[in-house]
Amino acid sequence: MAVWTSEVAVCNGALGLLGAERIVSFQDGTTQAILCDLHYSQARDATMRAYPWNFAIARANLGAPLASSDARAPLFDWSYAFVLPRTAQNYCLRVLTLEDNDDYKIEGSVLLCNSSTARIRYIKRIEAVSEWDDLFKGAVAAHLAMLLAMPITKSASMMQAMASLYQSRLQEAYAVDTQEGTPDEIDSNDIIDARWSAGVIY
Length: 202
What we know:
Number of helices: 5
Number of strands: 6
């Protein structure tokens, strides 16, 4: 695999899997470019959200809880609500843990819990391809190829082949990622969730 350092390079990796013509940019006017522009962010975010990749883990103190008068504050079950990082520069794709408090719930853009403070570990959206693990890049390319398969090749069997390749690359990438330090405890449903994110269950 060549070194991919840009979004277009990842897209061309996906197109190569489908035997399709490469693109020069998202705005080059080709059908492939239009489809890549449409589906790239979805493939990136879904793959990044699927597991706690080391390169995408961040930590944050969520600051003061919302006032009880705020429409997002809980009416029952929970005592406090905290706004999650959802800015262009710091976007939380998924909360992994809430420090010193196992019980929490994500509803919309807020985290609900019964603690007056909230420090979280979370998966942060990393847009710069140069910061990604190389195996993760391959997994994103396979996911994107799956999304592009039907509109480009009109082949359901190609879509299924790309879905299988995505799962294979996802597992390989995460197997290597977990060797870098003490492995996180992963919920058994994560594998199922990752398959749902790919749009296929098998």
